[in-house]
Amino acid sequence: MKILHTYLIRQVLATLMMTVAVFTFVLLLGNGLKEILVLIINRQATLGGVIQAFGLLIPFVLVFALPMGMLTAALLVFGRFSADQELTAVKSSGVSLLSLITPILGLSLVLCGVSAAINMEIAPRCRIAYLDLRDEMVGKVAGAALPDSIFVKDFPGFLIYVGASDGKNLTDIHICQLDENDKVKTMTDAPKGLLQRSGNQTSLELFDARIFDVQSGSWAYPGIVSQDLSSIKTNSTSKNIHIGDMTFRQLQNELQVVENEFAVPEKAGSKAELQQRRDILANKKKDVTMPIRVQMHRQVAFSFACFGFTLIGIPLGIQAHRRETNVGIAMSLALVLVYYSFIILGQSFEGRPYLAPHLILWIPNFLFQAIGAVMLWRANRGI
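The line above is the sequence of Permease YjgP/YjgQ family protein; the predicted structure tokens follow.
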């Protein structure tokens, strides 16, 4: 049994290294070449800078390449194992499929730990380093005055969040005015807005805006609200980071800061009014913090992809009875498409907290693990 386990581990590891290398190369070309090629053509990048940029992008693409590589390796190895009648010979000797694949499942769990380290710490830091390097080569400072998906805290007394921005047109805007204790005093929402610049003047114009006063518990609907941002002296000492590029610990800290600013007021008022204000603040907090929660759950959920892909890849490879590499890659790409469609769906719903988008991210893990477990049980029984 030990010899058989060693043989399988070697086969899976060799195939895994090959498939991860292929997927990493393809994803690197797709993610970095379109940006770096422009810098090369414009002679803004040196050879050393290009090599460093691609090196910093490797952990970022490994987030996707590692699970895809493990799935493809499971399909290819066990497809060949079944096609060559090796599996039949093993079963006839009294060895069950479950005992045969135990080290492979253990390997997938180890890869889950590696994926967690990459997803939650290494990849975000390398991504930020890559963006800094790219902006240094271009010779500009990254980001707009109000970049999207970032909690902007550069303006004293204000917390600003913009869902999407093209530099001028803004959507899903949330502006919280803070008191001297950094607690929310008023909250302004607007589905769309316009960022206007003229010389040193920068103004923000909100359309269909509504304003909630926390102390009085009343709503105001002014329609159009204008805010002169250039009149507010910024106190930025560090660069704002897109929440999609934050480490897990940075996301935790960001979540705690935002939640603290939505602390429940304890001012005088009737019990009913106080409860109403608490409910409004709680709902507002969900709207503002959901993008952070989605990113946190995405990083953790991604880390378990290798295990689910292994569980479903082994029985599919056995059933396919195929040695061809192209068949295994085609099957893996189809499964990856199904898996990542849930991830994309969850992230697209981050502006709708009532749909629980952070929980949608876990559906593919549970789905693949459940289906894979049933298929393995059936394959073990010879059904």
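Note on the example: The mean pLDDT is 82. The beta strands are 151-152, 158-165, 169-178, 184-198, 201-213, 218-228.
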